[in-house]
Write a structure and sequence with these properties.
- By secondary structure, the chain is α/β, with parallel strands linked by helices.
- The protein has 2 domains: 146 residues, Glucose Oxidase, domain 1, CATH 3.50.30.20; 205 residues, 3-Layer(aba) Sandwich (Rossmann fold), CATH 3.40.50.
- It contains 10 helices and 19 strands.
- Helix 8 crosses helix 9.
């Protein structure tokens, strides 16, 4: 027996799998039907207990090629049912064994429909997976277990380089997904990947043709030092931001952000490209959005979420930069918006031509 407890006192019964341990975190839900391994290894989920709304998870196993980082980044995993006998030509093991190997606590047998409904109606809240029925001590631990500086927990320790024949891209790693690097490599880019705490001076010293601001976990406002360094980069080189990078760039330019009630997490979110007058299905993972009334002159909304009309993309009209809230690299999810990487590469080539 195991229990999932929410901060409002709601308790869900289930059975443990993966690591048997008591853990706390922010409870969120993901609406994707597939891609659970990419979800588990996405650094943007650092400190969170992730609930999958699709009932059967683990049916195609796990492998060593699809992870978005070196290990699972979630704090805990909640599912209706774990498949004990995966079947797929690409599978190299089962989900239970994978979580056990990496020390991630899971709970199955939970009514994930009821849990998702609770989070949609009352908003994201903290929770705890525990072996014994919770008492006052468990509730106290749950309330005190905030994740501190999650970006610094998931960023790299040192700069590294991935050679390529094309434009030089300085990638600021706030918790990047491997698919972002793959998307840039497919377009021939020479990658210079820097830890989150790198100064603007050091990045510009590397003489990049463009700068990529990656995804990452947590509240964008918890990163004032990073925002200050991004402000020094604005206007120096073309900048492309994704997810947290989108939010940090906007804050650096004077905009504001706010939390969403329960966030956007899944690979089935409709987003409209306002310039093309076309809706794309996107992969998303974020709990914050920009405040539209706070956008200063020089920032134009380019994409909008077609469910709740929140901002999903911004074009900077005074310099060659743009950012999006969703994940054009997908993984999991559709690659409908991969054209944005082509747009970024074109901006860098344009900048090279102007320098010549």
């Amino acid at each position: 027996m195991a229990y999932l407890v929410l901060q409002d006192g709601t308790v869900y019964e289930g059975s443990a799998f993966g690591r048997i341990a008591d853990i706390t975190g922010e409870v969120v839900f993901n609406t994707g039907m597939t891609g659970y391994q990419e979800v588990l290894t996405d650094p943007s989920y650092c400190g969170q207990i992730v609930t999958m709304t699709y009932p059967l998870i683990g049916n195609y196993g796990v492998n060593w090629e699809d992870p978005e980082s070196m290990k699972p980044q979630v704090r805990g995993f909640v599912v209706r049912e774990v498949c004990e006998a995966p079947s797929n030509w690409h599978s190299e093991g089962g989900l239970n064994e994978y979580l056990t190997l990496h020390g991630i606590a899971g709970i199955q047998g939970v009514d994930t429909r009821a849990l998702t409904r609770k989070l949609r109606n009352h908003g994201t809240m903290r929770g705890m997976i525990c072996e014994n029925y919770p008492g006052d001590d468990e509730f106290a631990r749950m309330s005190a277990g905030e994740t501190v500086a999650p970006v610094m927990q998931v960023t790299g320790n040192e700069m590294f380089e991935v050679p390529g024949p094309g434009p030089r891209v300085a990638v600021m790693d706030f918790g990047l997904k491997a698919s972002i690097l793959s998307s840039l490599r497919q377009r021939g880019c020479h990658l210079l990947v820097f830890p989150a705490g790198t100064s603007a001076q050091e990045i510009l010293k590397a003489e990049p043709d463009g700068i990529m601001l990656t995804n990452g976990p947590g509240n964008p406002k918890d990163n004032p030092a990073i925002i200050a360094e991004i402000r020094k980069l604005v206007g120096k080189k073309p900048i492309f931001g994704i997810c947290l990078g989108h939010q940090l760039m906007a804050l650096a330019c004077g905009a504001d952000s706010r939390p969403l009630r329960y966030g956007h997490r899944g690979c089935n979110h409709p987003v409209k490209d306002l310039e093309q007058d076309r809706v794309y299905i996107t992969s998303q993972n974020h709990g914050y959005t920009l405040v539209e009334e706070s956008l200063p002159a020089g920032m134009r909304v380019s994409h909008r979420n077609w469910n709740d009309k929140t901002i999903e993309g911004v074009v900077y009209t005074e310099h060659a930069s743009f950012t999006v809230q969703f994940h054009p690299e997908a993984s999991p999810g559709p690659k409908d918006t991969a054209y944005l990487f082509d747009r970024f590469v074109a901006l860098m080539h344009s900048g090279r031509a102007q320098e010549v």
